[in-house]
Amino acid sequence: MLFEVTELKSSLVEQNAAAAKALEQQSHAMDERVSFFRLESRPKGAGARTKKEVAKHEQAGRVQAALATAMGDDPEWDGPEAIAAVG
């Protein structure tokens, strides 16, 4: 029973990491597709991201994926309540 739960959790973590990577790739593709749009004047605080902000966001995505993978290696990370909720 414990082995099956551990396998299930590991699979879910791998799926989460794969989804995070896919979303990151889709984000890059979307950035490329809309990069040719330019505003003549951009009001302050209009929501446009600087390269530094984009880099920070990408780093957060990589950290999240690495954390999800690492948490999958620890069978105690989410406690018995989460196991009961899954199965």
Structure description:
By secondary structure, this protein is mainly α. Helix content is 72%, strand content 0%. It has helices at 2-34, 51-72, 79-86. α1 packs antiparallel against α2. The longest helix has 33 residues, at 2-34. The model has no long low-confidence stretch (mean pLDDT 75).
List keywords for this structure.
87 residues, 3 helices, mainly alpha
Topology:
Blueprint: H1 2-34, H2 51-72, H3 79-86
Helix pairs in contact: 1-2
Brief account:
This protein is mostly helical and 87 residues long. The protein has helices at 2-34, 51-72, 79-86. The model has no long low-confidence stretch (mean pLDDT 75).
Instruction: Provide the β-strand percentage band.
Output: under 5%
Radius of gyration: 19 Å
Mean pLDDT: 75
Oligomer: single chain
SS field, number of helical segments: 3
Q: Which structural category do the helix and sheet elements fall into? A: mainly alpha
> Low-confidence segments, ≥5 residues, pLDDT <50?
none
What would you call the shape?
Answer: elongated
Work out the number of β strands. Answer: 0
As a percent range, the share of helical residues equals over 70%
Q: Give the N-terminus to C-terminus distance in angstroms.
A: 10 Å
Give the H and E element order: HHH
Question: How can the largest sheet be summarized?
Answer: none
